[in-house]
Design goal:
- 4 copies of one chain form a homotetramer.
- By secondary structure, chain A is of the alpha/beta class.
- Chain A has 5 helices and 9 strands; from the N terminus they run βαβαββαβαββββα.
- In chain A, strands 4-3-2-1-5-6-9 form a 7-stranded parallel beta sheet, sandwiched between helices.
- In chain A, a hairpin with a 2-residue loop joins strand 7 and strand 8.
- In chain A, helix 1 runs parallel beside helix 2, helix 1 packs across helix 5 and helix 3 crosses helix 4.
- At the A-B interface, helix 4 and strand 7 of A face helix 4 and strand 7 of B.
- Strand 7 of chain C pairs antiparallel with strand 7 of chain D, so a sheet runs across the interface.
Amino acid sequence: MNSKPVFIGVIGGGEASAEVERTAEEVGREIARRGAVLVCGGLTGVMEAACRGAAGEGGMTVGILPGDDRRTANPHVKIPVVTGIGYARNVIVVKSSQAVIAVDGSYGTLSEIAHALQSGIPVIGLGTWSVSINGRKDNNIITASSPEDAVEKAMASIKCL
Amino acid sequence: MNSKPVFIGVIGGGEASAEVERTAEEVGREIARRGAVLVCGGLTGVMEAACRGAAGEGGMTVGILPGDDRRTANPHVKIPVVTGIGYARNVIVVKSSQAVIAVDGSYGTLSEIAHALQSGIPVIGLGTWSVSINGRKDNNIITASSPEDAVEKAMASIKCL
Amino acid sequence: MNSKPVFIGVIGGGEASAEVERTAEEVGREIARRGAVLVCGGLTGVMEAACRGAAGEGGMTVGILPGDDRRTANPHVKIPVVTGIGYARNVIVVKSSQAVIAVDGSYGTLSEIAHALQSGIPVIGLGTWSVSINGRKDNNIITASSPEDAVEKAMASIKCL
Amino acid sequence: MNSKPVFIGVIGGGEASAEVERTAEEVGREIARRGAVLVCGGLTGVMEAACRGAAGEGGMTVGILPGDDRRTANPHVKIPVVTGIGYARNVIVVKSSQAVIAVDGSYGTLSEIAHALQSGIPVIGLGTWSVSINGRKDNNIITASSPEDAVEKAMASIKCL
C-alpha cells in the first residue's frame, strides 16, 4: 500500500441476493486491483461480498461497525472501527470515503447516498435508489453499467476534485 | 402540556421559499394545537418556520442542533439540544420523533426520511422527496395534501403503532 | 417557563445509594425552584432522583437517552431525546448544559466531567471524582457543600460567562 | 500484517512537550515492532508522535478524526477515519482499541480514560491522570514505567481477556 491511497466506499444492504453479491464482490476486486482502500459498514451482504472481493486481491478493507463488538465485522475486514453509535455510523462510512459506490440497497443505503450528496461526495449507483423531489428527478447519482465502470467512474470523480 | 404528549418531527431544508415556509409554519401551528411537541433540527428555513408556528400557539419546541453553540438555535426553540456531532444529529431528530413530517427538503431531509424508514418511524410528505429502487417506487412515504392533513396523518400513524 | 431559561445538567451513576438519591433529588428540586431546566441522561439512579425532584416542583426535565427506545426514560423525564448513539450521548448531555452538577458518580460521570472541562462548561461536584495529573490536583472541579450550594454555584458560574 | 492483529490505542493531548513526544514516539515504535495496529485520534502532539514511531517501523496506523476533513490527519496516519462528530469521536478511539495507553494528557484524554474504564477496556498510564472518588483512589489505571513496559502490559492485558 502506498502512503496516499484513495479511499472508496461501498454501500449496500446487509442482506443481498446472490446476483447482487456477485456484483459487490467484483466491485471490491476492482477497487483492490487499482490500489484503493475499500471502506464499508463492516457487516454482511453487500459489505461482506465487497470485502471478500478486495481481500482476495490483497486489498485493504476498513469496516465502520455500528455496534460495540469487533467480532461483528465480517471476516474480510482488516481494520474494524468500533463506533458504538448505531446507524449514525452511516455518516462516518460516507465521510471516510472520497467517493461511494451504491450497490442495490436498503433504507440505510439511501441514508448514506443522501449524506454523501449533502457532503459533496460523489455517488456512483449500480442498480440502486433514484430520487425525485416534487416530480423532478435528481441527477447527481452517477449511473454505472458494470462493477468496472463503477470503480472507473469513482476514481475519475475523485481526480476531478 | 400533559405528562405524555406525542412528539412529532418536522424535517426540511435550512433554506426555503416563502411558500414552503408558510406551509411549515402551518404544520407547526397544527402540531401545537393538538398538544404535541415539535421536534426539529433547530436551525433556519423549514425548521424555524415550523417552530414559529408552534410557539405562536403556545406549543413546546425542541431543536436538535448540529453544532456546539446553543445560540445557533432559531428564536422559537424552547429546548435546544446541543449535540456537536454535525449532521449525524439527523438520526437523533428522527429517533426523538414518533412520526416525521417532511416539508420540501434538502439532501439532509432525504437522509432523515431514510433514517426514519429504516427505524420504522412513519414519514408524512408534503411536497418532498419520492424514492425508487430499480424503477420500483417506494410507497412508504405517506403523501399529505395540506398541513392539517399531514398532522392528522402523523397523529393517526402513531396511534396505529 | 420563560423564553430563555438556564439549562443545568445533573450527572451521576445509574445506580445510587438512598443517600445519594436524596442528594440528587434535592438538587433537582432546587434547579426547578430557580426556574432552570434540568438536563440529564434520562435513566435511573442519580438521573431519576434529580428528575423526580425537579418534576415535583413543576420543573422542566430533559433526558438524553443512549438507546433507541423512548420508554427507557425515567417517568419524570418530560422531553426524552432518543439518540441511539450509546454512551457517546454523554457528550450531548454536557454540551446541552450551561453548567453541570456531578453527584457521586460512575465512570460515565467521569467521562462527562472530562468532556465538560474540555468544553469550558463549569463543573460543580457533590461527593464526586477528583482528578490529578502527574501528582498535581486539578482544581477546575468546583466543590459544593450541599445541594443548595451546588445549584447556587452552578447558577453563578453561568452568570460569569 | 497478519489477518488478526491486535489493536492498541494511544491517547494523549494534541499539544505535548518534547519529552512527552519522545515517549509517545517510542510507544508507537514498540506497538509496530510487536505487529499491533496503532489506533489514535489522528491529530497532533502525542497522536502524531506515536504515529511517527509506528510508521517508522512499518506499522499500521489508524486516525479517528473529529472533523470533516481528511487532510487534518497527521502525515503518519495510513487509515484516516473521518467522523465529523467532534469530540464524541473519543468514544470511537477507545472502542476501536483492545487496550489503550495514555501518555500525559489533556481533558480529552481523561474522557477517553473514563470511556475505556466504562467499557472494560484496559488502560495503561504513562505519566497521566489518576482519579479518586470521595477520597478513594481508583486503581484500575495500570501504571507503566517505560514505553516498552506500557506496550508489554497492554499486550498482556488483551491476552487476559
